[in-house]
Write a structure and sequence with these properties.
Layout: H1 11-24, H2 27-45
Length: about 70
C-alpha cells in the first residue's frame, strides 16, 4: 500500500491525480474497489440486515443453426 503524503494546491489538481491513479490500475482492481465501496455503503445504510448483493441472471439465447 502506498503511504505517500501528497499536498495539492487545489481540489481540481487533487481530483486529476486521483483520476490518473485509477486509470492506471487494472480493470479487475477497479471493479474490486467499486464492489467494496458498494458493500460498505449498503452496510451503513441498513446495518441490521445482511449486505445486499447484485443478483445474477441467467439468460438462454437461441442461436440459428449453422
Amino acid at each position: 500500500m502506498d503511504t505517500t503524503v501528497r499536498i495539492f494546491k487545489s481540489k481540481a489538481e487533487m481530483k486529476a491525480e486521483e483520476l490518473r491513479y485509477w486509470q492506471s490500475r487494472p480493470a479487475h482492481e477497479r471493479m474490486e474497489a467499486v464492489s467494496s465501496l458498494t458493500h460498505a455503503a449498503y452496510a451503513m445504510k441498513d446495518p441490521e440486515t445482511d449486505v445486499r448483493r447484485l443478483q445474477s441472471v441467467a439468460v438462454c439465447l437461441q442461436r440459428p443453426q449453422r
